[in-house]
Design a protein that fits this description.
Blueprint: H1 2-21, E1 45-60, H2 66-72, H3 77-82, E2 92-110, E3 113-139, E4 145-170, E5 175-201, E6 211-241, E7 244-256, E8 260-273
Length: 274
């Protein structure tokens, strides 16, 4: 019995000594994940890609034909007294559109911060049209009572637009959420037509001039016209495999032209970083 007791004590002492000599393994501390981390993707360098876009063109046609109508009625009494060219014949319109294009840029990276410059181009169909009219009766100082209808028609069709962006983002593992802002250029067909018609009545006027109908119109057309503005938006990219990345973003573009136009698009794209 004493021999068995002695053997048990010696085995226990050997086990404690062996445990003290074992390395400090993670599972001995109750955790299998300690020491693991998600590596940051290298976004530094040039990249190129393509995208598809779907969006909405928001146009304000109020006053779009004002300058056309003002030139048409320059010097007429009805324009000098009633300012017909300033009548609000049209309003706001929203039209859906779509397009496709590409992008190329360069990223600089400092640890998790990424700053870049990008050129973005989209070819598609954005824009819309509207026709409106206003009719009024009034008497002029000359004695004529006028029944006048001012009709305006305007259309803008944007086929190409590009933006030069500065963007900044912060990496989260394989993801790169970012914001951007920049200058925008576009190519558009802009057609505006003003028509003014009606009747002037003055019983006291000389025979032949007591009832005078009139119908005048003018059109201003600009084809492949360069328009400019600004853009900003948000997006995110995720590195898939072998420098191939997926992109999703929203962009707002505002153009300054004779027709106030803004375009909101959502985009999905695929790119490659060199």
């Amino acid at each position: 019995m004493r021999r068995l007791l002695l053997v048990a004590v010696m085995c226990g002492a050997a086990s404690v000594a062996s445990a003290a000599d074992m390395p400090d393994l993670p599972f001995l501390r109750g955790s299998f994940t300690e020491g693991l981390s998600t590596s940051t993707v290298n976004w530094q360098g040039f990249y190129v890609g393509g995208h598809g876009a779907y969006g909405t063109s928001n146009m304000n046609f109020t006053g779009a034909t004002r300058t056309v109508a003002a030139r048409l009625m320059d010097g007429l009494e009805m324009e000098q007294v009633q300012r017909i060219s300033e009548w609000p014949v049209m309003g706001k319109v929203s039209v859906h559109g779509h397009g496709f294009g590409g992008f190329v840029g360069f990223n600089s990276q400092w640890t998790d911060v990424v700053v870049g410059l990008e050129l973005n181009y989209t070819h598609g169909k954005f824009g819309g049209s509207q026709t409106g009219s206003i009719s009024r009766f009034f008497t002029l100082p000359s004695g004529y009572t006028d029944s006048v209808t001012y009709e305006g028609t305007a259309r803008i069709n944007i086929t190409d637009m590009g933006t030069l962006r500065v963007r900044g983002g912060y990496t989260y593992g394989s993801f790169l959420p970012y914001m951007f802002a920049g200058l925008a250029l576009g190519q558009a067909d802009i057609i505006r037509t003003a028509r003014v018609f009606g009747v002037q009545v003055n019983p006291a006027a000389a025979p032949g001039f007591q009832n005078v109908p009139f119908d005048i119109s003018a059109t201003d057309a600009q084809y492949s016209h360069l328009i400019y503005g600004y853009s900003f938006g948000l997006g995110t990219e995720v590195m898939l495999v072998s420098n191939l990345f997926l992109r999703a973003e929203w962009e707002y573009v505002r153009f300054a032209s004779s027709i106030d136009t803004s375009i909101n698009t959502v985009r999905a794209g695929l790119g490659y970083k060199f």
